[in-house]
Amino acid sequence: MSKTVLVCDDVDEIRMLLKLALSRFDDLSVIGEAADGDEAIAKAQELAPDVVLLDVGMPRKSGLEALPEIRACLPAVKVIMLTGFEAGALWAQARALGASDYIEKGTPMEEIADRIRAVSSS
Fold first, then answer.
1. Domains of the chain
2. What CA–CA distances, in Å, run from 48 to 10, 26, 94?
3. CB atoms within 10 A of CB 27
4. What separation in angstroms does the CA of 59 have from each of 86, 87, 93?
5. Cα(73)–Cα(68) distance, rounded to whole angstroms?
6. pLDDT tens-digit profile of 30-63?
7. 108 in helix, strand or coil?
8. In the chain, which end has fewer C-beta atoms inside a 10 angstrom radius, N or C?
9. What is the maximal distance between C-alpha atoms in the chain?
10. At what angle do helices 63-73 and 37-47 cross, to 10 degrees?
11. Count of other CB atoms within 10 angstroms of residue 57
12. Is 52 in contact with 80 (CB distance < 8 Å)?
């Protein structure tokens, strides 16, 4: 059964790239995308994906601000924080807010796919 993914990033090209790259995997399906934290919350509620790839730094509401709201309305959803920064204090904060994983932008697509599979199976 295919795992559904919502891709949330404020950069159009990154969303497009993730959507295109993840489409290569038969067991993963990108069912939506969002460009800011408010849209991420609304799309997550509307689509109820298995996994949300959520950029840390987005306009209107950051990924860290949107994360607890997504988890409150969809407790079963797995959220993977996506960022250009190295893991550290941000990862500790994201984990405390309910994130399942933390991926740096630039991580090879096969690893991102494996980590989506891993969190959605846990």
1. 3-121 (3.40.50.2300)
2. 20, 19, 20
3. 11
4. 20, 21, 19
5. 9
6. 999 999 999 999 999 999 999 999 999 899 999 9
7. coil
8. N
9. 35
10. 20
11. 16
12. yes
Query: What does the alpha-carbon distance between residue 82 and residue 66 come to, in Å, rounded to a whole number?
Result: 13
118 and 77 Cβ atoms separated by less than 8 Å: no
CA distance readout (Å), 98 to 101, 102, 117: 9, 11, 18
Nearest CA to 22 out of 2, 36, 47 is that of 2
Separation between Cα atoms, residue 37 and residue 76, nearest integer Å: 19
Model confidence over 61-110: pLDDT tens digits?
999 999 999 999 999 999 999 987 666 678 888 999 999 999 988 899 99
Which pLDDT score, from 0 to 100, does residue 122 have? 81
Do the beta carbons of residue 70 and residue 88 sit within 8 Å?
A: no
DSSP secondary structure of 23-83:
TTSTTEEEEEEESSHHHHHHHHHHH--SEEEEESS-SSS-HHHHHHHHHHH-TT-EEEEEE
Instruction: Please report where in the chains the tokens 């991102």 appear, as a residue.
Output: 112
